[in-house]
Structure formats: C-alpha cells, structure tokens
Amino acid sequence: MSMKGNRRAFRLIEKMKAPRSLRLSMTALLAAASLTVFTSGCSLLPKEEEALKPPLVKPVQQNLELYEVKRGSIARQLKGSAVFTPAERQELSFKESGGRLKELIVNLGDTVKPGDAVAKIEAGDLEIRLQQQRLTVEKARILLEQTVEQQSGDAKAIRLKTIDLESAQLQLTNLEEQLKRTTLVSTIGGVVTFIASLQAGDSVQAYSTVVGISNPKKVNLVYESSSGNDLAGVEVGMEVSFNYREKEYKGAVLQTPATAPMGNAAAGNKALQEKNAKSIYFSIPNPPEDASLGSSVYFTLTLEMKDNALVVPRGALRSYGGRNYVQILEGQSRKEVDVEQGIVTQTDVEIRQGLKEGQKIIISN
Fold first, then answer.
1. Phi, psi of 320, rounded to the nearest 5 degrees
2. Integer Cα distance of 291 and 125 in angstroms
3. Residue 52 — very low, low, confident or very high, per pLDDT cuts 50/70/90?
4. Which end of the chain is more exposed for a tag (fewer CB within 10 A), N or C?
C-alpha cells in the first residue's frame, strides 16, 4: 500500500463509530502493515556493485628494424646528362658602335670556310671616298716620277713629292681599313650555330656577337646544373665516364665554375657568366663519330670514394642541434651514440668515429 493510501485509512478509522479501543487496535495494525511494506520495499532496491579492478595491460612489444654495422665501399658521385658543345667556336662582332646592319649573309646551319663573309654594315660614302683616295695616290705617284725625271738634282723637290705620295697612301690605307671593318669574316671553317636577332637597318653594338661559327669536328661536353652548389668538389682533371648509345667513353673535367674564364667572350656577357657559374665542361678525346652538336650523353663523375669504410644506411643517422648520432641496441635498451660522418650519398653514410663493426643500430621503430 502506498503512503497516500495509508493516510486515507487512518482518517477512515478515526471517523468510524466504533469503540475507542477497537480503533486503536486497527490503527496499530495498519501502522505495522505500513512498516512491513516500507521495509520490504527497501529490500527490493538494487545492491551497489563492487568496483572492478583495472585489467592488466601487457607492454607493447616494439618491432625494431636493426642493421649490423659492416665495412664496404662508398662513393659520392655526380650523375646527369651532358650536351655536346663545340670545342672550337668563333664569336664574330663589329668593333665599333653606331653602324647599321646592311645584311646577314649566312643562315643558321650554313657551312662556311675561312675567309667567308657572314655579315655587313652600311658603309655610307666610304667606297666613293676610297675610290677618290686611290686616284689621289696615283696622281701623287705620277707627280713624284715627273719630279725625279725633270729635277734629278733637286733633292728637296723630290722629297716634297715623296711626302705627298706617302701622305696620300696613309689616307688610302686608313679608308681601306674602315671599309674592311664593315664586313665580318670567319677565320675558321665550321657551321653557323648562332645569329643575332637583327634586321637590316638595326643599330649594331660594339663587341656584341652577331654570328657564331662552330667546328663540329671538335667537341666538348657541358653539364648545366640547377645550382652551382651541386658542383662542390668538382675539380679540373677528374676522370669521367660517358654512356652514349650503350657504349662507354672516357673523358675528364675541363672547366669548373671556379676556373671559368672571366675575360674576352665572358666580359660583359651576363648570360654567359651565369651559365659558367653553374656548369662544368668535359673533354672527350675520342667522341662518338655519330655525335652531333646538341645531342646528350649520360655521365658519371666520382667525387669521393673510400674502400673498407664503416657504412650505415642514411636513414639510421639522426641529427639535432648540430649533433650527429645513431641509436644502438644494448640488450633490451636503446642507447644514443654520437658519431662523426664522412662521405654521404643518397642512400649511405660513412661513419669515421663512434661505431664498431658488428654493432647493431636501430634504423626505425
């Protein structure tokens, strides 16, 4: 019975017209019943569960990749593709500014011989002046001859006419040189590999290359890196191997950024200077007969090499704050060991100090 029902029963007993003793007995019985119900109801509540003990966690077993330190050979190499470039090349340019281009006589790919004209600038009235001066020289020569014949004993008169002839001849020579400078002439035989972007009438700058001639029978190889830093350690004379159409050829380093010429063709040529700063040139004494200018060849250049060295995978070397170290396994524990590195390649590292052959180092965990 609920508490509300009990209260109603108590009020009903009080209103009954029954002897007081009977009502007291009924009230006592009702109170006892309510107490029984209350205590029995409490016994129906769920008992508090005991706290569970935490499960035992087994330690995670680490799967370590180990490497046993061994001795072997290691080499740092530079590899890439080099391009055949002419070993003999002539850059032709006019020696004075202010002239205007008259014509380009040759085209790219043309074959020229020594002495062939390749370009001309306008000469103006120079040819007429030259012709007039030739006549002046001829006239002076005739007058000198007449003076010698007519006044054979007058030394002064003969000397004056001689001076006139020499002066006229000097002027003629000067005009001939001026006319000669209006024409570019090749001094080597070869192929036209460069022509400046000039049109007839364009102004010509002094010492600016107009035509480039290359000798296809004398070639070198050039490798241009993305950065000059990649060429650190390259020195003139180092041996290099080439692979061209599955055949091996030998050569040597001919020029490095440190030995690139700074004068002559490179002077004032910013593009050439920038190229030389990140390029190396190779000589190849016996080039392939079918090699052509511009074709490429794969090369391998050994910069450093050491045999019987302690070599570990590069991934095992760790660096922090200028410190180089590896982790070794001692029993079930790992330990950090400082090392001194030597030759470093893309895959391996030479360890000069800090490790011994046979030690096990941790590559990854």
1. -155, 120
2. 48
3. low
4. C
User: Could you give the 3-state DSSP secondary structure of residue 95?
Assistant: coil
Tokens of 37: 């119900």
CB-based burial of residue 272 (10 Å sphere; 0-12 exposed, 13-18 middle, 19+ buried)? middle
Using CA atoms, how far residue 249 sits from 231, 240, 246, 297, 317, in Å, is 21, 9, 10, 10, 36
| Amino acid making up residue 330 | E
State the Cα–Cα distance between residues 195 and 313, nearest whole angstrom: 52
Give yes or no for a contact between 23 and 14, defined as CB atoms under 8 angstroms apart: yes
pLDDT tens for each residue of 87-133: 888 899 998 888 899 999 999 989 999 999 999 999 989 999 999 99
pTM score of the predicted model: 0.56
Question: For residues 307 and 343, what is the distance between their CA atoms, to the nearest angstrom?
Answer: 11
pLDDT tens figures, 307-342: 999 999 998 899 888 899 999 888 778 889 999 999
30 Rama sector, left if φ>0, alpha if ψ -120 to 50, beta otherwise? alpha
- Give the span between the Cα atoms of 312 and 326, in whole angstroms: 10
The helix (H) or strand (E) run that includes residue 253 is strand 247-255
- Which three-class secondary structure state does DSSP give residue 134? helix
Closest by alpha carbon to 179, among 243, 229, 240, 134? 134
Residues 240 and 281: their CA atoms lie apart, in Å, by 11
User: Hey, is 222 helix, strand or coil?
Assistant: strand
CA distance 77 to 241: 11
